[in-house]
Design goal:
The chain has 182 residues and is mostly helical. Helices cover 66% and strands 2% of the residues.
């Protein structure tokens, strides 16, 4: 299921693809965390196979984050069969997308990096790619009202939470590269 989900990315589908991809990423990271933490009931050989596959899947996630183009992903964000003005999607997308970014990516990465094996699997480059992707999202959908664009961009509820969790993720990255006190 996860393997197939990682191949569905099609930015022309906008919101639907983003939402499905983030759900898949959440499953991937949960699966990796269960295996890396030792909570799974896998045999040692099965665990090694899963961890090898996980490294490759995390590498693809890293590449996806590096190539992610946010602008335009708002298409059809609030769905429905009736056509809605683009500005409604633009106004709604940042709030909803940030929820999926936090729930599907940042929180599971923090959990994964809380174990020694998880820290081995999640590269500093992947953490930096998450930070860069979030920065790109903020640039594509700034927290401002621009009447000339005909749309309201809103990063409303949850913005402080996502910023704090991202800071926690990057702080965990920094503490891992500092030498131990002597």
């Amino acid at each position: 299921m996860v393997e197939q989900g990682l191949t569905i990315w099609n930015p022309s589908d906008g919101w639907r693809t983003y939402m499905q991809y983030m759900k898949t990423v959440h499953c991937l990271l949960h699966y990796v965390d269960e295996t890396a933490s030792g909570r799974s009931k896998l045999s040692p050989s099965q665990k090694q196979i899963v961890l090898a596959w996980s490294r490759e899947a995390l590498s693809r996630l890293h590449q996806w984050l590096r190539n992610l183009e946010w602008y335009g992903l708002h298409a059809k964000c609030i769905g429905g069969k009736s056509p809605r003005p683009d500005s409604v999607y633009v106004a709604t997308f940042p709030h909803v997308a940030s929820h999926y970014f936090l729930k599907g990516l940042i929180n599971p990465l923090i959990a994964l990096r809380s174990t020694a094996r998880g820290r081995e699997l999640v590269s500093d480059e992947l953490v930096s790619a998450v930070d860069s992707a979030w920065y790109s999202a903020r640039l594509a959908y700034p927290n401002a009202i621009d009447p000339s664009e005909g749309a309201t961009y809103i990063w409303c509820t949850g913005l402080d939470q996502i910023e704090a969790r991202l800071a926690d993720l990057t702080r965990r990255q920094a503490t891992q590269i500092l030498p131990p006190d002597m």
